[in-house]
Design brief:
The chain has 74 residues and is mostly helical. The protein is built from 2 helices and no strands. The protein has one domain. The radius of gyration is 16 Å and the shape is flat.
């Protein structure tokens, strides 16, 4: 089992994986249409975006959290 102190990283990994999976699928479908859509093209679009999104969220999440707290707390 993974120690509890890594919960946030596991959450970020799962969140970015799911988010990039669905967004890349939607964009691939929009660009190619239903007739040109292939699973292999989708996976080629998705695979490189996941690690990029994961790295971005590590740095962006604390900034977004601070901004959200300022907006909500006034």
């Amino acid at each position: 089992m993974i120690p509890a102190k890594y919960e946030i990283r596991v959450f970020q990994l799962l969140l970015t994986g799911l988010m990039t999976f669905f967004v890349s699928g939607a964009v691939t479908l929009l660009n190619l249409g239903i007739s040109g859509f292939k699973l292999s093209i989708w996976m080629n679009a998705w695979a490189p975006t996941w690690p990029i999104a994961f790295c971005v969220i590590i740095f962006a999440a604390p900034i977004a959290s601070k901004i959200a707290k300022r907006i909500v707390n006034g």
